[in-house]
Specification:
mainly alpha; single chain; 3 domains
Amino acid sequence: MFEGIQDKQLLILCKEHVLKEKSATSKVLEYLNEIDRRKLLIKEGYSSLYDFCIRYLGYSEGETYRRIQAARLSQRVNEVKPLLERGDISLTSLSLLSPVLDTENAKQILPKVVGKSTRELEAFINEYFPGKFKKVEMFEVEIDSELNILLEEARKLASEKNNVLLLKKVLKVYVRVKNPRRIFLEPRNSKHTHRVSVPTAREVRKKAGYQCEYVSKTGVRCNQTAHLEIDHIRPYALGGSSKDIENLRCLCKLHNLYFARQHFSKAREKQD
């Protein structure tokens, strides 16, 4: 492949391909923003843009995080795109800048961060935006086989993937049992109507394997297992039963909303 190419020319060609790579990365971010805007990922069976990047595009978790942060930042701040295309700033730098950069401070901040290493950029952000990298108290637990089984069962019962939120839910239940007088103020879901009984909802989730049941036309099933909702296949307003398990399905919030919009659109078309 490199026969006949002199050293100097090899370096030049390598640099040219790097610039093309940077330009291509910027173009990928534009595609991600447009796919997200059209909500195509929901229709295709993915629970989030994060899930879409990993399962469909094949990115690692770190690559996905950096691209999503950079994509959303480039959408908010126009000055970011040309810097990324020229290779003046990296995806890692953009993901770090994402929480603090906006249209008002971009012209002042961006020239000062071009070319900085990750450590230098973190120090810069700490200086100009104190408190953005707050240290949080953490504790480590060795997960043996018994604890792993308990965690998996708790995730299913609580319909929660986030370990912090899962731990809070489990501890609240424990504290209520040990100290019934302790009161936790939690907001009631005033919008929840046509209630599905707890035993029925439990049976629907079990039948679904504790996973969103949405499957796209291409056969991709949503892999969301957290924050699952019980949805009426035939809407309650159209005579659908809240007691018949065959009329109920388990959906994540995004796909529940997706079907609701479809029903709403069809109802409006009939009215028109």
